Amino acid sequence: MADMIIATKNYDIVCGKEWSRKLNALLQKKKFSSFFILCDENTFRLCLPQLITQCAGLSKAEIIEIEPGEGSKGVEVAVNIWQTLSENEADRHSLLINLGGGVVTDLGGFCASVYKRGISFVNIPTTLLAMADASVGSKTGVDFAGIKNLLGTFKSPEGVFINPEFLETLPLRHHKNGLAEIFKIALVSDKRFWASLQRSNGKHVRQVIIEHSIILKKKIVQKDPLDQGPRKVLNFGHSIGHAIESAAMDTGSDLLHGEAVLIGIVVEAHIAFQKKLITKKTLQEIIETLRPLMEGIDIPAIDTITLIELIRNDKKAADGKLFFALINGIGSCKPQVEVTPKQITSAIEFYKSFAA
Ligand SMILES: NC(=O)c1ccc[n+]([C@@H]2O[C@H](COP(=O)([O-])OP(=O)(O)OC[C@H]3O[C@@H](n4cnc5c(N)ncnc54)[C@H](O)[C@@H]3O)[C@@H](O)[C@H]2O)c1
C-alpha cells in the first residue's frame, strides 16, 4: 500500500511505511535539544520497541509511562508529566513524542502546549480512533471535575506519523471503538463512504479507510479551525455521548469514548427523526448498520435528568438552550439545531427499548 502524506495547514500527517523515515527526517531537521516519549503501559510494551529500533536517535529519550485508559487523562497525571519535564530540564527546544491512543495524544498535547508556554510535540497514534480521528484538528485536553475535556487548548503537533502495523495488537473492543468515529464522520459528511463502510461491515480496516476519514475531517476542520460554527457537525453523537461518558466516569464504569458515541449516535439520530430531519427508514438503517458494533457494550444505567444536566454543563449548551449537531440525511449534518429536554427524554426511552 502506497504511503500518503496529508498536508494540513500547520503540519503533515504521514500514513504508511514511510512513517519512521519521515519522523527521522523531522528529528534531524529541527535539532531539538532533548526528547521525551509519553506512552502508556501497553504502548510501552507493544509499540515503543519498534519506535526506538526505527528511530535510533530516540534511544536516549526520557520515557514517561502512564497507566492506560481514560482515568489517566486528568490534571494529576498532567502535573506528574510537567514535573518529569521540569526535573529533566526540558527547555523550549525539547520535543515530546506522544506514542499511544487518544488519551496519550490528548494529554501529551495538552502538557506540551502549556509547558514553558508551549514546546513542540509529535503524535504517533497507535489506536484506530487516534489514527482516524484524533490525529486531525489540533485539539488537546484533559478531563476535569467529572467533565470530559473541560480543560484544553488548540495546538498543532509538528507532525503526525501513522504506522497502521501498530493496529495488529489492538484488541477487538478498541477496534470497534475506533470504527464508531469512522462511521460518524461518514454519517455527517460522505454518503458514499458510509455505503462502502456498510459493505465492508467495518471488518477490514485498511489504511485507505483511515486516510479517507482523516481527509474528511480535515476538510471540515479547515473551514472552522476553532470550532465556532461548521466544525460542530463533528459533534454529532457527542452531546449525548459525552454526557454518557461523564456519567460513566462517575460510576467507575469502563465505557469507552467510541462506545458512548455509538449510543449518542443512535439517541441523536432518533432526535433527528423526531424533528423530521431524517425518515424512519434512515433511522432504522443507521441502527442496523451500527448494531454489530454495539454488541456487548456494557451500557451504564442512564438517569435522564442527570444526563440533561450534564449536557447543560457541557460546552455545547448556550444561554440555557440546548443545541445539537443533527444529521439531516446520510452524509449531511446541521451544526446547530435546538433540541428540547422532552425530545432528549423520548430519544433515550427509544434507545432503552431498542437496547433491552
Ligand atoms: N483530540 C481529538 O480530536 C479527539 C478525537 C476523538 C477522541 N479523542 C479522545 O481520545 C480518547 C480515546 O482514545 P482511545 O480510544 O485511543 O483510548 P486510549 O488512548 O485509552 O487507548 C485505548 C486502549 O488501547 C491500548 N492501546 C493503544 N495502542 C495499542 C496498540 N497498538 N495495541 C494494543 N493496545 C493498544 C491503550 O493502552 C488503551 O488501553 C478520549 O479521551 C477522547 O476524548 C480526542
What structural keywords apply?
globular, 14 helices, single chain, 356 residues, alpha/beta, binds nicotinamide-adenine-dinucleotide, 3-stranded antiparallel sheet, 7-stranded mixed sheet
Could you describe the 3D structure shown?
By secondary structure, this protein is an alpha/beta fold. Helices cover 49% and strands 18% of the residues. It has 14 helices and twelve strands. The strands form three sheets. The chain has a seven-stranded mixed beta sheet, with helices on both faces. The protein has a three-stranded antiparallel beta sheet with strand order 10-11-12. A hairpin with a 5-residue loop joins strand 11 (321-327) and strand 12. Helix 7 (172-189) runs parallel beside helix 11 (257-274), helix 10 packs across helix 11 (257-274) and helix 11 (257-274) packs antiparallel against helix 12. The chain starts with a strand and ends with a helix. 47% of the residues are buried. The model has no long low-confidence stretch (mean pLDDT 93). Residues 40, 42-43, 46-47, 68-70, 73, 100-104, 106, 126-127, 129-130, 133-134, 137, 139, 149, 166, 169-170, 174, 177, 256-257 line the site of nicotinamide-adenine-dinucleotide.
